[in-house]
Write a structure and sequence with these properties.
mainly alpha; 0% strand
Length: 108
Amino acid sequence: MSETESLASLILLAVSAGCLLFLLAAVIRNGRCLRRIERALQSPKGAPTSATAAADGRATAARGEFETFLGEDPARLLLPKSEQAKAYRSWRQHKGLNWSKPSTRLTD
């Protein structure tokens, strides 16, 4: 083998080794990402993390009250969103769910 052929073989070997190391690093990185995704998918949906538990609890409670509000009168579903929100605020005040004192009449 001549000197140029052996130099070319050495360069080719070094480039191949570099590509293999790059591919190995990519596979390891993807494996870590997949494990994180699998853990997230395996965690029960009903058990939120402690950091978001309080915020989710308030959102769930508010969502349940709004569903109750809509369920009391099916005609409320036909109202535009702004009218639903206005009626919901007055409904909450009438039920005493706000911090202010309950009103004596409910306006629809």
